[in-house]
Specification:
Elements lengths: L4 E5 L8 E7 L2 E10 L2 E7 L13 H10 L4 E10 L8 E10 L23 H13 L4 E9 L7 H7 L5 E3 L5 H7 L3 E11 L11 H25 L18
Parallel strand pairs: 1-4, 1-5, 5-9, 6-7, 7-8
Antiparallel strand pairs: 2-3, 3-4, 5-8, 6-9
The protein binds zinc ion.
Zinc ion binds next to helix 2.
Length: 251
């Protein structure tokens, strides 16, 4: 069981527990100190109570709070649209990413050039624990490349035709979270739920934000079960090199 796990919750995802706050260099972050099946978890709501849009989320504060809370493992939950025909409600685990964001601070290193290695952006140990847990719970799981769009508007059919050349699913919140977690030398994995086909991928329209939130609520229990089961199968003695990310960085 991991001794120090942070969970970043996307739309419609929440955990009950003791409300707290962590003061980071990037601002105050509300957190919930929770416990599932004996596993201590720091829960951070990505969008907060005001439901900040994806391009205005304070990603640096969130990753800082996870680290300052003592977490070495971060599991992020995200909703995605499928560009490859994944069933609605199935689980997608990114192994790599491409991003088309424009206005988001994406590094902790503003004053000096630090080039952190991104050859394995998602922790393979954490990801495979999530995959095993999800499959053992009977969930359909696929892996591939996550494409991060800027939003907040949904993508046009032409944008999706372009993005399909680069990846399998599209979302708005996976980046720069993943890169910042790498810079913070954290083990980071994303548990994505496919909530809709991307624009132009079917004849029907896309789901609205409130419909996506409703769908996420329905899948929240699944996500919690997957996270808590995965947390019990991964140990602090992980074989990955995430904690050495900065040692491998070029300065
Ligand atoms: Zn790792």
């Amino acid at each position: 069981m991991i001794s120090d796990l942070a969970v970043i919750g996307g739309v419609g995802f929440a955990l009950p527990g003791l409300a707290d706050e962590i003061e980071t260099p990037y601002g105050l972050v509300p957190v919930v100190r929770s416990r599932i099946k004996g596993q201590k978890i720091i829960f951070i709501s990505r969008h907060g109570e005001g439901h900040l849009p994806p391009h205005r989320v304070n990603y640096r504060a969130i990753i800082s709070a996870a680290r300052m809370a003592g977490a070495s493992c971060v599991i992020s939950t995200n909703t995605v649209g499928s560009m490859a025909g994944h069933p609605i409600g199935s689980i997608f685990l990114p192994v790599d990413f491409v991003e088309f964001t424009r206005s988001r601070p994406n590094t902790f290193f503003e004053e000096r050039a630090v080039h952190v290695d991104m050859s394995q952006p998602y922790c393979p140990a954490l990801k495979s624990s999530l995959a095993d847990a999800a499959r053992s719970l009977g969930q359909m799981v696929s892996e591939g490349v996550y494409v991060c769009a800027e939003g907040p508007h949904l993508e046009s059919p032409a944008q999706i035709r372009m993005m399909r050349q680069f990846g399998d699913v599209v979302g708005m919140t996976g980046y720069p979270e993943v890169a910042l977690a790498r810079e913070a030398a954290l083990c980071y994995a994303s548990l994505c739920i496919v909530t809709n086909p991307a624009a132009g991928m079917t004849g029907g329209g896309n789901l609205t934000v409130s419909e996506i939130a409703d769908l996420m609520k329905r899948y929240q229990m699944t996500a919690i079960e997957v996270v808590s089961l995965a947390a019990q199968t991964i140990t602090d003695q992980r074989s990955c090199s995430c904690r050495d990310a900065l040692k491998c960085a070029r300065f």
